[in-house]
Amino acid sequence: MIGCGGGTLGTMLARAGRRVFIVEIDPVSIRLAKRYFGLPRNVSCHVGDGLEFMLKKRGRYDVLIVDAFTGENIPAHMKDAAFFEAACRCLRRNGLVMANVCLHRKSDPTADKIAAGFKERGLSVRLLDSPGAERNAIVLAGKVKNLRRPSLLLVPATRAKQTGKELIAMRFRRPRSILRNRGRVR
């Protein structure tokens, strides 16, 4: 998992019996997640840049979760060719990448551009999108064929009702084609 934040997702995955490894550039984020938000001790944490970690890492993962932000934006180097190639190299055969994307308007092409980056490297892609203008979308790449809409397996300590409503509202959609030369979404 690239990006820790408060550690909520890492905590839920660990409590669901998954082995979790987090890479986070800000050491304060990891300390806060452990001290105040209950990130379990069995979650391995590494302080460093997610892309640099993937470029050096020789292991492969079943799932790679990208939840890295500066404010509400994904850092530029986490959306370029080197990132897509490193992410693909870190996946096991039949692995899955899930990238959380904040979208700022209805026509925001960020999720579609990320989907296109994975598709250009031969991965199948799907987008799970929320309604509205300012929203979250999840780009899914790799083994995506039989994925179903998510459901809440573990109830979070806070905002459980709101999180449940947000999950119910999410729908799969096809990625829009990106016209790179003109910078438009088709």
Structure description:
The chain has 186 residues and is α/β, with parallel strands linked by helices. It has a single domain (49-185), classed as Rossmann fold (3-Layer(aba) Sandwich), CATH 3.40.50.150. The protein has helices at 8-15, 27-36, 50-56, 81-90, 110-119, 160-169; strands at 21-24, 44-47, 61-66, 91-103, 125-129, 135-142, 171-173, 178-179, 184-185. The strands form three sheets. A five-stranded mixed sheet has the order 3-4-6-5-7. The protein has a two-stranded parallel sheet with strand order 1-2. A two-stranded antiparallel ribbon has the order 8-9. The longest helix has 10 residues, at 27-36. The radius of gyration is 16 Å and the shape is globular.
Could you list some keywords that capture this structure?
186 residues, alpha/beta, Rossmann fold, 6 helices, 9 strands, 30% helix, 25% strand, disordered C terminus
